[in-house]
Amino acid sequence: MQVRLSHTQGRLEATRRALISTQRTLQTKVTDLTSTLAKLDAVTKSLSSRTSERDSLAGALQTARLYAANVAAELAAAQGSVTAQSGFIQKETTCLQGVQQAVNQISVGDRDGAIASLRAVSDACQAAAHPPPASANYSSAPTRVVYPFDFPDPYVLRSGSTYYGYATNSGLGNVQIIRSTNLVRWEPVGNALPALPSWASPDFTWAPSVLRVGSSYVMYYTVHSASTGLECISSAISNSPAGPFTDDSQAALVCQIERGGSIDPSPFVNTTGAFLLWKSEGTNGEGNRIWSQQIGPTGRTLIGPAVEVLAPTQAWEGGVVEGPSMVQLDGSLLLFFSGNAWASSRYAVGYATCAGPLGPCRPAQANPVLRSTGSMAGPGGQEFFTDTGGAVWMAFHAYAVPNVGPPNSRLLHLDRVNMSGGAPVMTPG
Question: In this structure, are residues 293 and 279 in contact, taking their beta carbons and an 8 Å threshold?
Fold first, then answer.
């Protein structure tokens, strides 16, 4: 972190020196042209009786004036561009200093202090996540990134007019939680799950999701089982979407030991009930699968049989289907999923059409519908929510090119989702 901070400060100083040099060069041009214009004005006046020469010099004078205006515009553009770059580097410096402070606070157990430090530099880090254009004439595409810190496997829940985001464990705790009232500016809240159940290993929690059940909120998450060594799914409960959530379970909610474990829980609710979707890891030559099962009345039990709804069948998946999430769009029930290697730019998002929450589901031929593009690499971990106006959004994570793969951050992105021609279309928010 200190090396990166020193490097950033060096870039800031180099940019300032470049600005001074550019200003001096262009100012010299302006000075020379101003002198030339004065001389041409004097000559034009002295030749007022010689029409042809006067007209010729007047034309030259006009040309010189236009050139001087272009040089002045070039100077202004250069100043604006370098100033923007300087401002960006300064914000990046502020961000890195704040993150370094948070890391130091976490190392001594001061999580509340770390949260405060991240809140203080959140705006600077968000600005630093989007470098300014190199040219004043450059027009950037809409950005998907809405939170500048590592936030993998995101799940967004709306409670009234407030949105809560949950993500895989980080230095802030077992389950990260952030909050927003406008989907643009997010602030860290802290650790949604302060303690793990006795049967779980510490520091292995990811892919949380939250379902409101009556006046309570049930969190489903992946955790490592100390006795089996496998990833399993557990549940925790809270009376507030902001937590803290409590898991007093004595065993996993779902743990398909014969299938190598279970991960990536995601709830779905429609008029027929509530359902939990997840992925089995696969073992003994059997690949991974996606499953669905009905959720019981309390939200912390499952009823009826678990049904396999999807297996890897398409080349782009690389033998992997995971991160299931179901959504109803314009009368179509769609199962979205991530495929391929999660730590690479090959990771992408596809979907299948389903007859019901328990399937059967048929993958779309147009898959993947969201893949690496531009500065976004390896999108996945998608989940859906509805805003206060009724619009459907997809939350997902992605790396920022060229920083692909661990230990680089996977940033939170938001896309609007609509149906067009019978297929889902994602639009950056």
Answer: no
Give residue 79's pLDDT.
Answer: 59
Residue 187: per-residue pLDDT: 92
> Which whole-number Å values give the CA distances from 415 to 96, 171, 226, in the listed order?
27, 27, 37
Instruction: Please compute Rg for the chain using Cα positions.
Output: 29
329's CB contacts (< 8 A; 6+ apart) are 392, 417, 418, 419, 424
Residues of the chain with pLDDT under 70: 1-23, 25-89, 91-92, 96, 98, 100, 103, 106-108, 127-143
Contact 213, 299 (CB under 8 A): yes
Q: Which fold has domain 145-428?
A: Tachylectin-2; Chain A (2.115.10)
Q: Are strands 302-310 and 273-280 parallel, antiparallel or unpaired?
A: unpaired
DSSP 360-420: -EEE-TT--SB--BTTEEEEEEEEEEE-TTS-EEEEEEEEETTB-STTS--EEEEEEEEEE
Is residue 230 a contact partner of residue 221, using CB atoms and an 8 Å limit?
Answer: no
Residue 297: CB atoms within 10 A of its CB come to 11
For residue 169, which amino acid is it?
N
Does the model's pTM come out above 0.70? yes
Four-point Cα dihedral 330, 334, 336, 339, nearest 10: -130
